[in-house]
Design goal:
It is built from 20 helices and 13 strands. The model is unreliable at 1-35 (pLDDT under 50). It has two domains: 6-156 and 339-403, D-Maltodextrin-Binding Protein, domain 2, CATH 3.40.190; 158-337 and 414-453, Periplasmic binding protein-like II (D-Maltodextrin-Binding Protein, domain 2), CATH 3.40.190. Helix 16 (365-373) runs parallel beside helix 17 (382-394). Helix 2 (54-67) links the parallel strand 2 and strand 3. The two termini are 28 Å apart. By secondary structure, it is of the alpha/beta class. Strands 1, 2, 3, 4, 5, 11, 12 and 13 form an eight-stranded mixed sheet that branches. It is globular and about 75 Å long.
């Protein structure tokens, strides 16, 4: 998922307050009437969680207001968990944002419960060209019967972040990292590299005699949680190479967690913990994967393209960031989960037309080009994606490992179904138990039965 790392949360809050003040907006309800208007100006409240993207969207808000002086945008950025608490409770209290950055893990329930506005009439009235977005992103934000609820704002894929200083010291080139292979039987060259990059406190590597798996100073691979129901950055790129996905299609009414291919993958992944090549579940709880990578206590971490700017902005004398594609699986391809964000309009808004004007601007090239120039994420519009790639390259970052998945069609969609929070509530504890070593993958069959019972 696209979660801003915890160490940035307070910085993001401070930036959000400063940015709102600099644009002439305010959180003080006494500045306008209860319907969000102040004289001839209508204020649109907008929420997002990623502090890395806040400056770009503050610029979009300023540009939008300059072109549309009848509107002002009040942006609030808060961390992932608090953000979703505010959004969901806001629907009940009637105090939700007018417009908010949405995620497909939450959106299905919002639209099913009638908490977000359909956009079809607005899109038709303004004659928007929906073909400008990257393939597959528009459909993510439709209901099962094809009603559109969001305009795509960006997309993300997964690759391997690594510390080039550690890989070079271990004798690996960038070409070696770009050609890793994986299979669930012995892990392929992916596991070989992970083992060699693991070093115990005595300086013995994981593939050398005398390696102490209980006293590791540098892990070859870092675990970022169990992956829960989705495994976006943890294992989805591995299971995809076996032809496995959580569901057979968007809005499916059954899941596939009982498939032996999934169990095989998770068994292999947990074996890295048993061998000492990856930290235990307990050891990684509450610990930032990015901090571990930057500090040199982890050599490789699979993660999403939205973290590129932060990781490369943390280069130092001891940390040289680099990106490699996900390993090539048994099917001969490198895979990634594809996810994309959009902006939803809350049904609680008292200014739906103003909210639409802002959503339309967020989904336009004018705003997405600003986001592209910030070199933080990949905008959803195809031409803006190209500008983002250029902006990353200007900063010395080759992002082909992320974008090649889109151009080559080696992506699987983030699973989108009804009852997503219930699915998460079942699969989260199940996967945590497996990755903690307190349960085996044989529990996946019963968990899948419980998930599929939700749809009966």
């Amino acid at each position: 998922m696209k979660k801003a790392i915890g160490s940035l949360a307070m910085l993001g809050l401070a930036l959000g307050t400063l940015a709102a003040c600099s644009s002439g907006t305010t959180d003080d309800p006494s500045s306008g009437t209860s319907d969000g208007t102040d004289g001839d100006v209508t204020t649109i409240s907008y929420g997002l969680w990623d502090s890395n993207q806040l400056p770009a969207y503050q610029q979009c808000a300023a540009d939008f207001s300059a072109a549309n002086p009848e509107y002002a945008v009040d942006i609030e950025q808060i961390g992932w968990d608090d953000y979703w608490t505010k959004v969901t409770t806001g629907f009940v209290s009637g105090e939700s944002y007018d417009v908010f950055t949405s995620h497909v893990a939450y959106y299905p329930e919002f639209q099913k419960n009638g908490q977000v506005l359909p956009l079809d009439d607005y899109i038709a009235a303004d004659g928007l060209d929906m073909s400008i977005y990257q393939d597959g992103l528009v459909e993510l934000w439709q209901s099962p019967d094809g009603v559109q609820y969001g305009l795509p704002k960006d997309f993300d894929t997964v690759s391997l972040f690594y510390n080039a200083q550690l890989t070079e010291e271990a004798g690996y080139t960038a070409e070696d990292l770009a050609d890793l292979t994986w299979n669930p039987e012995d892990g392929g060259t992916y596991e070989e590299v992970i083992a060699h990059l693991t070093i115990d406190a005595n300086g013995v590597r994981g593939d050398e005699p005398g390696f102490d798996k209980d006293n590791v100073a540098q892990y070859g691979l870092w675990m970022e949680g169990s992956g829960g129901a989705d495994g976006q950055t943890q294992w989805s790129f591995l299971t995809a190479s076996l032809g496995w996905t959580q569901t057979d299609e968007p809005w499916a009414t059954s899941y596939n967690y009982d498939d032996p291919a999934f169990a095989e993958t998770i068994d292999w992944w947990y074996s890295l913990v048993e061998k000492g090549y990856m930290p235990t579940f307990a050891a990684q709880e509450g610990v930032s994967w990015a901090d571990q990578l930057i500090a040199g206590t982890a050599a490789i971490v699979p993660n999403g393209s939205w973290m590129t700017g932060y990781v490369f902005g943390s280069a130092s004398d001891t940390f040289t960031p680099a990106i490699a594609p996900t390993p090539i699986g048994p099917d001969g391809s490198s895979w990634s989960m594809l996810n994309g964000l959009a902006d939803n309009i809350s049904v609680t808004t008292e200014n739906p037309d103003a909210a639409w004007a802002w959503v339309k601007y967020l989904g336009s090239a004018e705003c997405q080009d600003v986001v592209a120039d910030a070199a933080v994420v990949f905008p959803a519009i195809k031409t803006s994606t190209e500008k983002a790639v250029t902006a990353f390259e200007a900063n010395g970052v080759d992002v082909a490992a992320f974008t090649d998945h889109v151009s080559e069609g080696t992506t699987v969609l983030f699973p989108i179904t009804d009852y997503k929070s219930d699915v998460n509530a079942i699969m989260g504890p199940t996967m945590e138990a497996i990755m903690s070593g307190s349960a085996g993958t044989d529990t996946l069959v019963a968990a899948n039965d419980s998930v599929n019972a939700l749809f009966q």
